Amino acid sequence: MRYKKLLVVLFIFSVLQLQSKEGMWIPLLLEKYNLAEMQEMGFELSAKDIYDINNASMKDAVVVFGGGCTGEMISDEGLLITNHHCGYRQIQSHSSIENDYLSNGFWAMSREEELPNPGLTVRFLEYMEDVTDEVLEGTEVFDTEGREEKIKDNTRKIEHKASERGKFFTQIKPLFYGNQYFIYVYKVYRDVRLVGAPPSAIGKFGGDTDNWMWPRHNGDFALYRVYSGKDNEPSAYSPDNVPYKPKKYFPISLEGVKPGDFTMVLGNPGSTMQYVPSHEVDMIMNQRDPDRVAIRDKKLEIIKADMESNPLVRIQYSAKSASISNAWKKWQGEILGLQRLNAVEKKQAFEEEFRNWAIANETWESEYQPVFQNFDSLYVVYQDIVKASDYYSEIVLKGVELFDLASRFNNIISSIENRQTRIANAQILAAEKRVTSFYKDYNQPTDEKLFEALLPMLNNDLPPVHLPEYLPEIISKHDNGKLVRKVYRKSVLTDMKKLEALLKKGNHRELLKLRDDPMIKLYNRLNFHYEANIKPVLDNVNSRIRQNMKVYMAGIMQMKEGQPLYPDANLTLRVAYGKVEGYQPRDGVKYTHYTTLDGIMDKDNPEIYDYNVPQKLRDLYETADFGMYKTEEGYLPVCFLASNHTTGGNSGSPIVNGKGHLIGLNFDRVWESTMSDIMYDPDMSRNIAIDIRYALFIIDKFAGAGYLLEEMELVGIETEVVDSIH
Question: How far apart (Å, rounded) are the C-alpha atoms in residues 412 and 420?
């Protein structure tokens, strides 16, 4: 009996050890659910050091960077660090053939040289709060549709009040499929300037080939500075603005990492699906991911060929190609990971466990059996309609580029036809601005190839019910490039000057004539079919699945009562924690937890853009001029692995040690763990970080911008070494 009890204790302990690395936890609830475990693993601080609304804490040093990344403050003078790929579009926007900052990098050697980025914002979280009761107040008397409207109405009122007349940006987001609601209140800064970015051969070293892979040798970082008005409050860009004084910034550690060290990621993970039923996992693994990969195969084939043959196209399409490739490669890894884990079978086993629990609690027939019967029928419809939606999304919305302009003009025409003069005029002004930026990064021959390749995929892979009636006919009639010539050669959308003149004039009668433009007409028909026949069905099925998920999730929460559960990610502040460790992806292969500059030199290939190491970095390597950034063994660290649970949105997130000191920047996951958005695997799930020492080395030794280190707080080295850089 003693032996059996010991086995049980050891089993429970081992399960806790495995689970300790999984999860994206709400900072406000760390004291209740996670702190004891974190401290056992090596965290030396308190929960209030991470999140406190009354005193400066780590949450005050972390921002939502742009639309979907994380960044963090590293000085009391507004200096911010994030990933190179998070700021890639800004770096590209400042680049030209004459000043190719993508290839050569950019470093401001004074505040005056820092580059403004119109439209780029950073959001500081002021506080988060559970507002479930307020959001659900008065909803119990309504049916499902009325309840949703009441929730929206309550949400608007709560957000408006918390915004304090526009002083703050507020969001209420559902957790656990609407079983809980939190409000997030942000202060938004709109003057964010580029300070420094390494060349792509460092910041994007390995390119799409190495993306999602380990070993990794990517110096994926860039520096920005947040500016404010003289009162330290948000202000639109102005030469009179001053560097923002943050409430908190991260000290930077030069101690490095070793296996087993505690690590914590504080960031804004974007989206996960940990609790979906087996039906969803099966559909993702066997339909959605393969479909989207196949479409993006064709996009990348066309775009990369043109990028390789034309330096201007390489600049124009660098960010676009990276964006397309990122999910394309992730989905492939996700398929393999879900297959390896037998994810569908594991989900089905959990559902059987849930069923047995509900039967024992006498709630199966009355509450949960209808939910699973609904899942069975809903996913039959959803599988069909989401395939059509994925194709329209990948081809019409995010495939043929000229459809973007066609969409804008289609909206203008619609507003004019409906006599919405004010709206139409606002849309014309917005279109004027968009045309300039659109054509800067547009190559018509590339787009024509995309059009010619993608439109037949839409036509051939979807059943007729999901296509406008005329599409098969015009594709069959206009083969061998005839359709391209008919559409592109006759469309005003291919003539930037005519388009600009038309918009500047703003004559509604002349704009209405664009109804007959071949590209706008084609887009309109495709979009009309999607909006009328696909989107309503998709929205309805999605809504009904969410309603079922809310009931199912409530049951899971009841079943797991007393056990900590983390909600799916939703681009709000979360904490993930784990430790520094390598992994074994397959039999006979075991990866260490770190990479070095030696590995970069092993990959060096002047014939390949993404592996062409800058000559200055070669010189620093040859002379071993690594300064205080090298390890005791004498090598220069580049990246490391840890077992923190991360996803998209965590790009740029600070990785701190047990003392709260910055040791790295999260920028990726290993390919074998891309399924962790759906199912976490403690053996394979590893996040990839740039070692902060490599970033400092590039700033100091490579870029010669060591003056930036003077405003940072470096810890973990001798005082006289720190003094030597000031």
Answer: 9
Four-way CATH pick for 1-121+190-272+570-726: 3.40.50.720, 2.60.120.290, 2.30.42.10, 2.40.10.120: 2.40.10.120
The pLDDT of residue 609: 82
For residue 703, what is the DSSP state?
A: T
Q: Say whether 651 is catalytic.
A: yes
Residue boundaries of the structural domains of the chain? 1-121+190-272+570-726, 278-551
Return all residues near 233 (Cβ < 8 A) that are at least 6 apart. none
| Residue 515, number of CB atoms within 10 A of its CB | 15
Spell out the alpha helix ranges (H) of 275-368: 278-283, 289-309, 311-340, 343-360
Which member of 20, 57, 84, 85 is catalytic?
85
Other CB atoms within 10 A of residue 310 CB = 15
Q: Is 54 helix (H, G, I), strand (E, B) or coil?
A: coil
pLDDT attached to residue 480: 60
Q: Is the pTM of this model over 0.85?
A: yes
Q: Which of helix, strand or coil describes residue 195?
A: strand
Over range 485-514, report the average pLDDT: 93
220 classed as catalytic: yes
Mean pLDDT of 412-419: 94
pLDDT higher than 70, residue 116: yes
> How far apart (Å, rounded) are the C-alpha atoms in residues 170 and 185?
5
Percentage of the chain beyond pLDDT 70 is 96
Among 321, 651, 653, 676, the one annotated catalytic: 651
The pairs formed by 680-684 with CB atoms below 8 angstroms and a separation of 24 or more are 680/22, 680/274, 680/645, 681/337, 681/341, 682/18, 682/19, 682/21, 682/22, 682/643, 683/583, 683/584, 684/337, 684/583, 684/585
Does the structure show a pLDDT above 60 at 172? Answer: yes
Least confident of 159-163, 317-321, 501-505, 535-539: 317-321
Q: What is the mean pLDDT of residues 223-232?
A: 98
Catalytic status, residue 661: no
Whether the per-residue pLDDT at 119 is higher than 90: the answer is yes
The answer to whether the peptide bond before residue 215 is cis (omega within 30 degrees of 0) is yes
From 64, 3, 57, select the one nearest 30 (Cα to Cα): 57
pLDDT at 719 over 60: no
pLDDT (tens digit per residue) in 421-457: 999 999 999 999 899 889 999 999 999 999 999 999 9
Hey, what are 480's tokens?
């061998």
pLDDT averaged over every residue in the chain: 93
How would residue 481 be classed by pLDDT, with cut points 50, 70 and 90?
Answer: confident
Choose the catalytic residue: 52, 100, 191, 220: 220
Asked if 139 and 507 touch (Cβ cutoff 8 Å), the reply is no
Phi, psi of 99 (to 5 degrees): -125, 80
The rounded distance, in Å, linking the Cα atoms of 201 and 530 is 41
Query: Looking at this protein, which amino acid is placed at residue 593?
Result: H
* Of the candidates 694, 689, 581, the residue with the CA atom closest to the CA atom of residue 630: 694
With the CA atoms of 155, 161, 164 and 168 taken in that order, what torsion angle do they form, in degrees rounded to the nearest 10?
A: -10
525 with 468: CB under 8 angstroms? yes
